[in-house]
Hints:
The structure is a single chain. This protein is α/β, with parallel strands linked by helices and 733 residues long. It is built from 27 helices and 21 strands. The protein has a seven-stranded parallel sheet with strand order 11-12-10-13-14-9-15, with helices on both faces. The chain has a six-stranded parallel sheet with strand order 16-21-20-17-19-18, sandwiched between helices. Helix 8 crosses helix 9 (218-249), helix 15 crosses helix 27 (724-732) and helix 16 runs parallel beside helix 25. It is globular and about 85 Å long.
Amino acid sequence: MDAVPALDEPLKKVLGPATAKVMAEHLGLHTVGDLLHHYPRRYEERGQLTHLADLPMDEHVTVVAQVADARLHTFASSRAPRGKGQRLEVTITDGSGRLQLVFFGAGVHKPHKELLPGTRAMFAGKVSVFNRRLQLAHPAYELLRGDAEETVETWAGALIPIYPATAKLESWKIGKALQTVLPSAQEAADPLPEPLREGRGLVPLPEALLKIHRPHTKADIEDARARLKWDEAFVLQVALARRRYADAQLPAVPRRPRPDGILAAFDDRLPFTLTEGQRKVSEEIFAGLATEHPMHRLLQGEVGSGKTLVALRAMLAVVDAGGQAAMLAPTEVLAQQHHRSVTEMMGELAEGGTLGGAENATKVVLLTGSMGAAARRHALLDLATGEAGVVIGTHALIEDKVQFHDLGLVVVDEQHRFGVEQRDALRGKGKQPPHLLVMTATPIPRTVAMTVFGDLETSVLDQLPAGRSPIASHVVPAADKPHFLVRAWERVREEVEKGHQAYVVCPRIGDEEDGAKAKKKAPEDEAEKRPPLAVLDIAEQLARGPLAGLRVEVLHGRMQPDDKDAVMRRFAAGEADVLVATTVIEVGVNVPNATVMVIMDADRFGVSQLHQLRGRVGRGSAPGLCLLVSEMPEASAARQRLNAVASTLDGFELSRIDLEQRREGDVLGQAQSGTRSSLRMLAVIDDEEVIAEAREEATRIVAADPDLERLPALRTALDALLDEEREQYLEKG
Length: 733
């Protein structure tokens, strides 16, 4: 039997089962090759102190610093009622700032002996806030004694690599493991074709791996990064280029609207004219629908830019051409909302087969999991016979029972919320591959579009329709200035008195199911922040307190579908003043009369999510107001993020900020494939040039050699990137 290639060797054989298990479970590292590609996040210089001043909240960090002082306190607690409880507080400094470390109970003895003033060490732990000061509770630490044999060997050279780590495995332990596997780097197969590598002056792969983990100079790090970025960008772009090449070989039915068909009739009844952007994007989509290969297009537009209207016109063009169009929505609330707004916009054109229907009308059906059996049978029959030209539904559309007469277009709303298998199953229901239009309200910078959606053509809607009102956004620092929060609730009352409505958004539902998760805390673990605020608690507090007398309703994901729909209908009809909800209202919910939104614990949401939520207000003629409530300290990264959201309504600008902060996100859809992050070195924002050049090179190479027969090492790298799940992810793109 052949020996396993060195880079495919399982870590448990090389490092032992215990370490290998932690690496697999917490870092997704299984083989020697995986570990070699687990790059340092940054480097510390032995003689230089790190920046404690800008530590991120709630993240696991590693810092190199010096002990300024250490104090042991005794106190009484439930476990030690006679005042025998012990707490060690150690202050460390790096010249830029100070940070408190805290150890409790039996855990104080070792650090009390070792962390003496003047001692230098590496500390790793999760940054939390206690008494409005940043601290690390029970951090792991490694003393930096310049003379200790092991430390010198492990941290060879002046540059200390700091690795992405976990609470179970600190950065320095990962460094020691890498020391063991580094010799295998010599056997790494180089995926870059020789002419490309030499033409761009990039170092060979084994040399790059050596320099990234054990650099002697900063120039070593630059050489390694430049090379490893190219690998990531290039291999990914080859995968996408092969996908585009394969799609271009598939047949599809061209779908062209009739000059006197349902689309023309629909345009005639619109009470407004399309914006320039909507017209331009519609033309791009119609051109794609008219080709003999499946269109794959991404439609991205700001919240409220009129994407649904553009998608509906594309669907009607397909109905004109004798086909059917399906719109897939991520939640029942959203599917019902889309169904309502589409039938309203179409009027009698949506009443095909009924007495009041227009002459060239079609049927618009809704299909969701919670429908009654009779309604469901009707809908399925309308789809199978072709009676229904347009269907809007949730993943219920994907079930085996659902048969289409002639599926011509699939529209996917909010792509990032769908599993890949679901989209694929729906696309498989056409006699020939249907055209695909993916809509997202999360603006995506150009490079991300080239990377994440590299197999889709992109259309951008960046104009807001006339009559939309601006949204003012403000951060409400609830801990620093409690009176600001009091004023926030006054503002909600004022809006309701003017006849408007309000949303209050919370991160958690607050029923037993998610409450249980929040309670598992050790009593002395004061450093842990309180659990996120919950819809059920806040709704009750508001109804009894600052919003007493107003009609307050709740909406969350674990309610019965009929109840959810009833709440949304009441709110849309103005029968409720305040809707306290989770992020179920994040996409697609359209109530023009809602003018104010208060987001509780806003620091618990991502930038794009806050921008999405904010887009639910200011949808009518009255100006919108969004209040971001947070207890985070002024200097924290979380507050800076909220300030950024408050300072601009430009979704593209915010998506850049979001990406710069998340960086490690998996561009091949970690959430969708469950696999490890594919981008470790490439930063999709900063490396725009590398991505664009890699895309050109990849397209050229795939056109000349689609199966990469002449490039075996590139094929191997592609197989590693596209382990089975990822291959499917791209397949189903």
